[in-house]
Amino acid sequence: MGSLIETFHLDVKLIIAQLVNFFIVAGVLYFFALKPIMKIMNERTAKIEKGLTDAQEIEERLNKTQEESKELISQAKKESMEIIDNANTKSEEKKKEIVTNAKKEIESLINQSKKQIADEKEQMIKEVKADVVDLVTQVSTKVLAGKIDADINQKLIEQAIKETNKNEKN
Fold it and tell me: Beta-carbon neighbour count of residue 156 at 10 Å?
């Protein structure tokens, strides 16, 4: 080894001093440069991993929220269709009720009109009878003018009324 050192003109002291300098510089670089850089790199890696995890959670929440919103929209559509169906059913029932009430009112009006017509007819018949009795009385009074007494006159009037009643019934 001695010949090797002499051949290459190596100075052992210088090599040892350079090794010591190298280790000092390597130690300083490790503590002041490499260690903080590694710490920053580890923190950065942790932040990136946390960001990726958060992004996955957000994506899962987004998908879940979209599914829930679709479900809510579907449920709202069903409820609106039920409300519309109920409204249609109620309107049909109300329509039937109104038609039934209108028919009842029309029947009532028809019955009232028939009754009124019957009452008016009866009243007219009474008036006609009274007029006929007056006419018969006047005619019989003029025709018989004193030839018939009161009993015969009364009998003729009753007979005329009976005949009038028979004619009206036919």
Answer: 16
**Residue 28 identity:** V
Give the rounded distance of the alpha carbon of 134 from its chain centre.
75
Closest CA to 57 of 65, 47, 68: 65
C-alpha angle 58-59-61 in degrees, rounded to nearest 5: 65
Residue 128 burial (CB count, 10 A): 12
Mean pLDDT of 58-73: 95
- Note the pTM of the prediction, 2 decimals: 0.41
**CA–CA separation, 32 and 26 (whole Å):** 10
CA atoms within 13 A on the CB side of 21: 6
CB burial readout 39-64, b (16+ within 10 A) else e = eeeeeeeeeeeeeeeeeeeeeeeeee
* Minimum mean pLDDT range among 9-18, 73-82, 143-152: 143-152
Task: Confirm if 131 and 111 have CB atoms less than 8 A apart.
Answer: no
Quick one: which H or E segment has residue 78? helix 35-144
